[in-house]
Amino acid sequence: MNVLVYLIPISLLLGGVGLAFFFWSLKSHQYDDPDGDAQRILSDRWDKAPPED
Amino acid sequence: MAAPVSACPACDAAHIAEDTAGKGYRGNGQEAQRIMLSLPTAHCAACIVGVEGSLQQLDGVRSARVNLTLKRATIEADPGVEPQKLAEFLTSIGYEAYELDAGALSTTATEKSSRDILMRVGVAGFGMMNVMILSIAVWSGAADATRDLFHWVSAAISLPIIAFSSQPFFKNAWAALRVGRLNMDVPISLAILLAAVMSLYETAMHGHHAYFDAALSLTFFLLAGRYLDHRTRAVARSAAETLAALEVPRAHRIKPDGTDEVVSVAELKIGDVVRVVPGARVPVDGMVEDGESEIDRSLLTGESLPVFAGPGHMLNAGEVNLTGPLTVRVAAAGKDTALHRMADLVALAETARNKYTSLADKAAKIYAPAVHLLALAAFAVWMVISGWDVRLSLNIAVAVLIITCPCALGLAVPAVTTAASGKLFRQGMLLKSATATERLADVTHVVFDKTGTLTEGKPVLDNMGDHTDEDLALALALAQGSSHPLAQTIVTATTAAGLRAARISEVKETPGHGISALAEDGQDLRLGRAEWLGARGLDRTATYLKIGKRPAVAFTFTDNLRDGAAEAVADLKAQGLNVTLISGDAPAAVQDVAFRLGIEDYRAGMLPEDKVAAIEALASAGQRVLMVGDGLNDTAALAAAHVSISPATALEATRVVSDIVLLGRSLAPIAGAVTLSRSATKRIKENFAIAAAYNAIAIPIALVGLATPLAAALAMSFSSITVSLNALRLRGFR
Asked: Which residues pair with B526 in a beta bridge?
């Protein structure tokens, strides 16, 4: 069971990466216009969004 | 390009749009102005491309970005580009648009708190997933040191996350307890805290059961419900701001030569003089220079009796001018006005005014005490059974609290209202009241106003050729003082014909009757209803002018049916609802509209008080009345009705009292809204039943002491998912 010493921190780290990614998406306003974003992807016009802030 | 993080997401969005604009117009070197337009009918990818693309073709427009969720466009343009022109341009190419006052729109605060809740949801979700994985190992048989290790790791993850994510519940619960009341957050907070403390104790004592996963998933599911609720409100508030902005940004400024010019409120300076017509909100804080009137201050001070306003009296922005035209010298405008400081209080007053108890409140009233008593009883009984084993008894009491905890209840209402109001918003209806859907579902009788509601409310003067220029000049002078649609039409028509207003004094509007004044030669002037003038009324929409002792002359008008009026009436009747038409107009005109729409029950010549009496008579006969109206004379009736709807074109004062506002031009969505709210209310009740059913199974299990953390996790997840799915069925409705 010693493997747990590595596995638990690794799984927490991976989860933490996911959380950090979520924070980033939140900070870069990706939840401000969900309806618009859902429709924009259907448009063939060139769009550089999301912003790089 | 590393721009600083902006307080305003729309500005950032505008920057992107600028980058993507094919033309790449960078402006004329001057500082850009930000223009916001409301787009009530935008709904698809083609609309986004159409609006953004066509705006960017215009001269002076640097960028345009549509936010479809808030139904808004943000435009960066050269100074001097007129918002009104852009709105008219979009409307003319088929995208209905209204101008918004960008300065007054406080998107930042709601955006920030919405992001704050979402952050807590994310953190709780992260913790829940990790602790669940650790718990699975424990459930599948980890023992002794391994189990203790897993419990300790879970504790290390859960405790800080609970401390962070559950703060909204703790704060609300504390606020309620401090004033000696119980709300839904009290049992929630108690369950989360007890579960965390109990589990920590069990972990330290090498116990078998720790409820860290339950405490976290409770937090996660309830926060998700809270977030949905918040989002719905944010969209509604944003649209409500849209409406506030529709009315306020323009003021009639009086130029030194005595003529009016329409300007944006933002352009007004202290010391300017503005004209305020009856029925309109005062746009600024200031002192009355000229004119006498009555002022309705109920919105700002709670005084229900109108107060007198004459030269020297102070007025506040947001007060409603009731009878006579006033000129006001500006003391403060825009964000500095009392109205803006009062905005939050107004929102409170509106919720307090609403005596209706929502389904959620009814459920919470039964639920909160019941749960506490049940947990306490479980504790007491197990103390006796187990021979005063505090640890076992407390464990069971906590299990009862967790298992009964209102995950499903917390999601039952927000999930449904989010789905329903989202659906209604897409159909162009804005719910101003949280309980509007529930009340709309009860409706048995629909009362319509005619002018401006079933009809376009844009009457056209059709007999101008019958009058002399002198009469027309007097009519123009009288009509200038009123916001009544017929008076406004006279103003537009006569001004367009190049006439100037005659000089008159002591102008007074008697709401529901007309306007009176004195001519320069001392003759009595009256413009208004035939009865009031002692004239014989024509069989059609008309207003009458009486000069001195001369017989009254009639100004006649024609009016078209509003788009969707026929469908709305037909659909409502098909649903078995009674439809009544109540109008202050002449019998022949009312009969004509009623006949065209197939309404058998119609009443004409109704004064404001008659309308209220009619609504109250229906209510006392056991009918739940939906009132649809737009005018100042409907305001009282709208407030008296069980639920009320007004079109976006209605007077601001009218929209304030109605529960639902139609954002588009058409009336057609009304019938669908009634059906939709019926099924929304049905879903809410179903959700309560589902939650109750889960509890009926889970509580006995918890009471006999068999509720393991696994059972709690299963019950919680299944009930939450069931109610959410049940609510989502609304999205596919029709």
From this structure: B516, B546
Return all residues near B498 (Cβ < 8 A) that are at least 6 apart: none
**Domain end call among B558, B585, B615:** B558
Question: Is B534 part of any domain?
Answer: yes
Same domain, B583 and B631: yes
Instruction: Round to whole Å and give the CA distance between A52 and B179.
Output: 47
As a whole number of angstroms, the longest Cα–Cα distance in chain A is: 55
Q: 3-state secondary structure string, B550-616?
A: CCCEEEEEECCECCCHHHHHHHHHHCCCEEEEECCCCHHHHHHHHHHHCCCEEECCCCHHHHHHHHH
Taking only the tens place, the pLDDT of each residue in B589-608 is 788 888 888 888 998 877 76
Whether residue B165 sits in one domain with residue B131: yes
Quote the tokens at residue B21. 């604009």
Does residue B723 lie in a domain region? no
- CA torsion B165→B169→B171→B177, rounded to 10°? -150
Residue among B229, B285, B449, B571 flagged as catalytic: B449
Number of residues written out for chain B: 734
Q: How many CA atoms lie within 13 A of B690 on its CB side?
A: 26
Last residue of a domain, one of B313, B348, B383: B348
Distance from CA of B25 to the nearest CA of A (A): 16
- What amino acid occupies position B651? L
Band (B158; pLDDT cuts 50, 70, 90): very high
Neighboring chain A residues of B153 at a CB cutoff of 8 Å: 8
Q: Give how many domains chain B has, as a whole number.
A: 5
Q: Is B592 a catalytic residue?
A: no
- CATH number of the structural domain spanning residue B332: 2.70.150.10
Instruction: State pLDDT tens for residues A21-50.
Output: 999 988 888 887 777 888 887 777 665 544
Kindly indicate the confidence band of residue B156, based on its pLDDT and cuts at 50, 70 and 90.
Answer: very high
Query: From residue B75, how far is each of B14, B105, B242, B364, B542 by CA, in Å?
Result: 7, 14, 16, 45, 43
Side chain identity at residue B417, one-letter code: T
Q: Answer yes or no: do B129 and B220 share one domain.
A: yes
User: Is the pLDDT at B96 greater than 50, yes or no?
Assistant: yes
Are B122 and B219 within one domain?
Answer: yes
- Residue A16: both structure tokens together: 């933490």
Interface test with B, best of A1, A7, A8, A32 (most B CBs within 10 A): A32
Average pLDDT over residues B224-239: 72
Residue B152 is given by DSSP the state: H
Asked if residue B291 and residue B373 are part of one domain, the reply reads: no
**Chain A residues inside the 8 Å CB shell of B111:** 32
CA atoms of B690 and B684, how far apart (whole Å): 10
Q: Which domain holds residue B209?
A: 110-235+356-413
Same domain, B372 and B229: yes
Pairwise CA distance, residues B480 & B475, whole Å: 8
- Examine residue B329 and state whether it is found in any structural domain, yes or no: yes
**Judgement on whether residues B467 and B451 belong to the same structural domain of the protein:** no
CATH number for the domain that contains residue B32: 3.30.70.100
| Contact by Cβ (8 Å): B457, B484 | no
Contact criterion met (CB < 8 Å) for B118 and A40: no
Greatest mean pLDDT among B189-198, B301-310, B340-349 lies in B189-198
The length of chain A is: 53
Co-location of B51 and B158 in the same domain: no
Q: Residue B438 is part of a domain; what is its CATH number?
A: 3.40.50.1000
Q: Which of residues 20-39 of A touch B (CB under 8 A)?
A: 22-23, 26-27, 29, 31-36, 39
Nearest to B96 by CA among B734, B559, B649, B676: B649
CB-based contact B20 A12, cutoff 8 Å: no
